[in-house]
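ok new one. same drill as before - structure tokens go in, u give me an amino acid for every spot. 98 of them this time. try not to just spam alanines like last time pls lmao
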């Protein structure tokens, strides 16, 4: 569906971003608000305002997409794209086992 992806930051928007252009990143599929009680206690997967890439906003099949910084994960050097893109599905499996 285009909700599991990794890529490179082309442009940084917003005054308080710690991200830089050219940085390789992996994106968490759920866009959470980062402000509600559930998000603040760390349960971002339960955010009542959550959205999912490609269902609620453009995803990996679009030419370019806007990704909120709270869902970005640094893409470690030496990790191939074919492996990095599996980070989000692996995290789902780990969370399900917990």
């Amino acid at each position: 569906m285009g909700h599991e992806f990794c890529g490179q930051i082309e442009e940084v928007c917003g005054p308080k971003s710690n991200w830089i252009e050219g940085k390789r990143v992996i994106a968490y599929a759920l866009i959470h608000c980062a402000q509600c009680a559930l998000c603040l206690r760390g349960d971002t997967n339960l955010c009542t305002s959550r959205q999912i890439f490609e269902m609620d906003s453009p995803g990996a099949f679009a030419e370019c997409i806007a990704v909120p910084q709270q869902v970005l994960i640094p893409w470690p050097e030496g990790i191939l794209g074919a492996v990095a893109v599996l980070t989000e599905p692996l995290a789902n499996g780990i969370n399900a086992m917990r």
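Residues 5-97 form a domain with the Quinone Oxidoreductase; Chain A, domain 1 fold (CATH 3.90.180.10). and btw Helices lie at 37-40, 81-84, 87-97.
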